[in-house]
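Task: encode each sequence below as structure tokens.

Item 1
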Amino acid sequence: MPLNDREESVLAGIHEWENKLFDYEPNDLEIVYDKSLERSFSLLPEEVQNQFFSAMDSWLFHLHALIQGSQLQMDAKERILTAGRVFHSDIETIEDLKQLNIDQLQYIAQQQIARHRLYSFAQGGIAGSGSSLLLGTDIPAMAVINLRAVQLIAMTYGFEVNTPFEMMSSLKVFHAATLPPRMQGRAWEELMHELKNQEEYYFYEGKEELTDLTWVEQPMKQLFKAMAIYFFRRKSVQGIPFISMAIGAGANYQLTRKVTDFAHKYYQMRYLHRKNNQQ
């Protein structure tokens, strides 16, 4: 089915965003950082490296399943369906959301995006409040918030994330979205390659490994943020550590902004690709 003018406009916007990803040029500092990180990891035995990344993959898979099966996610799914019924009263399942047009889906998706950016902002502020316990829970909390946001954006565009293909797709989108900007172009190309070469969208036929050396930078950034919060948490005004709270809130907001922007572009592309291929 050919795309209408509005859908063509959205597609053009995605292509413009793609070009910015592909045109990104790393600076000298990023190149030096890459080489130093690679040298540091090369000092570890290969077996240890494989065990580390395998453990990270397993943690992400289990976290994805835990989020998907939670009552919180079920309630959010029902809210998405309720929002869809405002535009089309016959909607009963996530699959039925495909009946909505691109602007209606964008409106519902933006609600989810805004809500999760607020969650991240609040989580960062809480982590920066000075409690070591709250600071220690920041990394898993951010993983939950951002994985959940990807799942809900997928559901908004009519993709239920409980099949093998959609589960792997959502995890790979999360992985790609948390990569450094200089590596996101290649990750996007891989996602598009899988999308165009997949014969059916139930079983997953691609590479199942997620994390590798390229992804380590994001956890490192989270650790640097934690160190900055720890350092500034004693610099308070009337007992409130504004600087550390601002660091936590700002860093978490920017991460979720990056993740939700990437995920939204991907699922918009999925929606347009599916419609364009319909007979």
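Item 2
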Amino acid sequence: MLNNPYVIYGLVFVASLVLVDTLLRALFSRHRANEDVANRLQALKQTSGAEQAYTELLGLRGVRDRDGFQQIGNRINKYIAQSGLEISIWRRVLYLLGLFVAGALIATLALNLGGLAQYGFAFGFACVGAFMILRYVRTRRIKKFTAQLPSAIDIIVRSLKAGHPVVAAIALVAREMPDPIGSEFGILNDQMTFGSDLEQAMLNMYSRVGAPELNLLTVTVSVQRGTGGNLSEILENLGQMIRDRMMIRAKIKAISAEGRITAWIMLMFPFGLYYLILFMVPTYYDVLWESSYGSYIVIGCLSMIFMGMLVIRKLINFDF
């Protein structure tokens, strides 16, 4: 089918359309702060009750469940919610189709695959590519949220020392801090305004965001409400501890930089060697491509390279 030039042109057009759509969304992403505020106000106007308001706020991200976020068992939906993206089901299908087309083109033009191997590679490329992109966006948002969290805690501490209640302090964070932490604390404030308990609202926020440091804040508030104590002083110490964790993480990243560079070199070396030999001796791989099992050998090698990349990544990443 892909031997037909019109089919190739059509696939290239679809891939280009997806690429342009992605670039436009990235270009106009800075305008999402105002949209998030408008979405929160719209949800407040159209709902009555804490759980219903919370469900509507999640629905604006494309995550709809009548029992709330805690009952969502689909990991993909959870990743999409934690990434902060608003992706409809049709847009998801369009993105997967674009990645599938890109994988088919790579398999045909770069790897010279055909038949079942070509479609298998395209399917794997679409699945892995979509997961990696979604994981990258989610990780970037969590890092940005974590970097903003100490400043948000400082605002809460100063507000509590000034005599404001906790709800007013949280509303101040939602009003003064940029996204993503501003939107998340805005949803937290909306839940508490509609009567939700602070502990449950913070647990919901931790499920939406997925940042480990936010779990520390949730546990701290929960323990303080059960045992008592000076909340402002406890949060002040927690903010300093989160800053220390971020400093340690930066030091670990600097120490493991050599290992990460080595991993990238080992990952790119087989591809560089392949194209170097192909440039020097164009007929060197003819036996491989002309054989009936050559494409399966290529897929097996690519799979082992990918597994090796995962192993190396596990070795150079540190959890603490």
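Check on item 2: Residues 248 and 320 are 10 Å apart (CA to CA). The chain has three domains: 5-139, 143-248, 257-316.
End of task.
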